[in-house]
Amino acid sequence: MSSDTLTKAASAAPEDPEDAAPLRIVPRRRPGLWTTAVVVLALLGLALNSVVRNDAFQWDVVGDYFASASVLRGLWLTLWLTAVVMALGFALGTLLAAFRLSTNPVLRAVSWGYVWLFRSMPILVQLLFWFNIGVLYPQILGVKTVNLLGPVTVAVVGLTLHEAAYAAEVVRGGILSVDRGQIEAAQALGLSRWRRWWRIVLPQAMRSIVPPAGNMLIGTLKGTSIVSVIAVQDLLYSVQLVYHRTYQVMPLLMVATLWYVIITSVLSVGQYYVERHYARGSGRGR
């Protein structure tokens, strides 16, 4: 390289590095990513269009029955059944979790056996078993089981016993997720056993309990549809009664589907805010 060229290059270079123009960072182009997004959106659009414009769905019939009295009565029973089963199931599950964490080997064995048995039995089998309990025990304490256990009572009993088995493991896992040092620190401060559980263990355990509990709530809401096999007039059974009379199967099933989608969406939003509440101070609340 000649001396003149070196001189020109030196004069062109800035004397102060701060005077140099900042480098422009260009993000890497990803044409495949955008192509995939366009293809997926196009497929979703085609699927949505096929549903909306398909006359076989009979959307006018869906609109007629969506808020009908019989459907709303079935929806109310579904919501009531879900609330009762979740409350009783978690109450019994919490008791079973306490047994499992007890130092008493008999209580631990009973809790383990309960969870093992009811998680092993399909929920449909449990419902049919309780529905036909009169075959094994015609009378309990002098009361005929046929009169004692109606279809709704059978649904509550069967679903609650099934739910409790899963709730017990959810609660036990949440309690075990709390650092042992937290409990020892509370003991060192002289807090009573009740205050330790209520003020220290439970708030921290709820961070691990709420997500699976929310999934269980949504699963229970949809799972109540199985009680239609024992003639409990829930949401699904209500639409079945209608389409058995009108033979409009698909639009009535869409009515039930839309209600399930709406309720589960509302519950999902509620679960998000409950999770955020219990995640405060842990860095996961955003």
From TrEMBL:
It comes from the Bacteria. It is a multi-pass membrane protein. Its main location: membrane. Residues 75-271 form the ABC transmembrane type-1 domain. The chain crosses the membrane at residues 33-52, 75-99, 111-131, 216-237, 249-274. Pfam families: BPD_transp_1. It is found in: Cell membrane. SUPFAM superfamilies: MetI-like. Keywords: Amino-acid transport, Cell membrane, Membrane, Transmembrane, Transmembrane helix, Transport. PROSITE patterns: ABC_TM1. NCBIfam families: HEQRo_perm_3TM (TIGR01726). Belongs to the binding-protein-dependent transport system permease family. PANTHER family: L-CYSTINE TRANSPORT SYSTEM PERMEASE PROTEIN TCYL, MEMBRANE COMPONENT OF AMINO ACID ABC TRANSPORTER. This is Amino acid ABC transporter permease. It comes from Streptomyces lutosisoli.
